[in-house]
Amino acid sequence: MPLARTFPLRFVCSFIVFFLLCFTVAFLIMSKREFDEVTINQVLFHMQLMRDNIVTMPGDFIHVFLWHVRNAVLCAATFAFLKEAAPERNGRAGVGFAAVCLVFVVLWFVVPGTFIDDLFVAVRWIVTAMLLLAAAGAAGLPHRLYALAPRVLRWISGGGRLAGVWLCILLYGMYYVNFFTFFQEQAVIGDFYTEGAYVDPRKVKVTGSGTKNLIIIYCESIEETFGRSEIMGEDLLAPLRPSIEEPDLRIEQMPGADFTIGGIVASQCGIPLKSISILSGNLTGWALDRYLPGAVCLGDYLKADGYHNVYYNGSSGVFSGLNKFFLSHGYQEFMGKEDWIEKKHVDPATMNTWAMYDSDMIDRSIARIDELMASGKKFSFALSTMDTHEPGFLSPPCVDEGYSENWAGYVKCSMSQVERLLRHIRDRGWEEQFVILVMGDHQARMAKMDNVDLKHVRERYVLCSLQRDATLKPMRSVITHFDLFPSLLAALGFSVEGDRLGFGYNVFSSEVKPEKDYRTRLKKRVLSHSKFYESLWLPEYLDKTEVPSSDKTAD
């Protein structure tokens, strides 16, 4: 068969092979960047969620997916052309080959559009260099250069080498989705939730009634480390000291509680927040139409006891599904960035690029707490500060007061606003009517704060100050986010049979204490695959799931 007739067939075959290779690699890269870590059990559970119409893919996912498909087609077409169309020698055919190479160079800068990531830029320059060298050689400039790229591509796709490339991609893909770990967990390790470490709140008897109001202040990225002058150069928590001298509790951060909504869910429900679908922890809550419907959390108990529960957030309430979580678990009022703007309580022009300034948040929180106190009814009020979220912001009053535009200034300013709320409670003489929790939502996520490298700091703990009845003495100083769930109920006046809820232990209980290696075990296994954890998102499948044993029944 003449060579000209065989070229289309050879080109199509090469294109298919190169497309499969390029798209497989692109899909793995896309998965890593879009979904963080993806495990095989997450993929399987996500398929179940999609089947039941419970999860919605993010709106821009299709755009990103098609971007990778389009670039994989371009990459495959380029490689197939270089491999199959390179002329044997210079001449008229060589000039035509060079012209097509230049067309491909233009396509590599046009087809991807404006959505470019760093890795693609590197690949684009490598392929562009290959095309320019091949074009220059084929056009008769540097002799033999045109054959370099085609020879490399033919060598890679020849013999058993292509099979080796496929095998490497397959093994990496299996490793990437934790294929081997998944089967190890199923066959050997077992379900951590059903081995006694977890106590299902639905099977625990909680009695009594709350005797005080509750305030929870989640301070963005604030850890106890910021108060250590020997590390930070000064006490960045100094503005809080009038209300909080030296907290007698500190939080050791656990997996699944190392981002904002994860820390909130862990402290209110006694469980970590982990990706049960292929979406990240933040995107999971945004895409699902219900939030942990099988879980029982702090707000659920308080609402059942007659509390009016309020949560104020300065940033988006839609992001990460924060509004769904609170409104699904006992909170009657939720205010996020969208709500403040929609109800015209805040002018968007007075917000920073991320959220409402902490000074404005404290103003509105004080006003709402005054209204709730005037009602004479029991309530809980939670809020989150935002000025210490990356890249850091300085509330306008702090600008006027001369706070520095760096992390030290952002932290001190934010803490001065928190202290303003605490001082308001104190000035009104209301301290005895409240249990007040001031805590970081998680450790600081930035690698460096000004000139301090946080990665090398040992014994980093999340800030935790729990103001409660003086008769309640903690049995240990280091706790987890999970421990706050039963401990807050105890501080409010409830009685938790067994003093355990979720993964949390009541820190004020002298009878029930965690084992010495408990936190170590949590770090290793709390995010392991668990059918029971999945049932918290799909409670209708609970009858198919082993439930943690308990002889208690809920009220």
Quick rundown:
It contains 20 helices and 14 strands.
Could you explain the architecture of this structure?
Strand 4 (308-313), helix 13 (322-328) and strand 5 (333-335) form a beta-alpha-beta unit. Residues 542-547 and 549-555 have low confidence and may be disordered. Helix content is 46%, strand content 10%. It has 555 residues and is of the alpha/beta class. The chain contains 20 helices and 14 strands.
How would you write the strand order of the largest sheet? 5-4-6-2-7-10-3-11
Q: What's the N-to-C terminus distance?
A: 83 Å
Show unreliable segments. 542-547, 549-555
Assign a percent range to the helix content: 40-55%
Number of domains as seen in the coordinates:
2
Number of strands: 14
Round the mean pLDDT to the nearest integer and report it: 84
From the 3D structure, determine the CATH topology of the largest domain.
Alkaline Phosphatase, subunit A
CATH class label of the largest domain: Alpha Beta
Please, what is the CATH homologous superfamily of the largest domain? Alkaline Phosphatase, subunit A
Shape, per Cα inertia axes: elongated
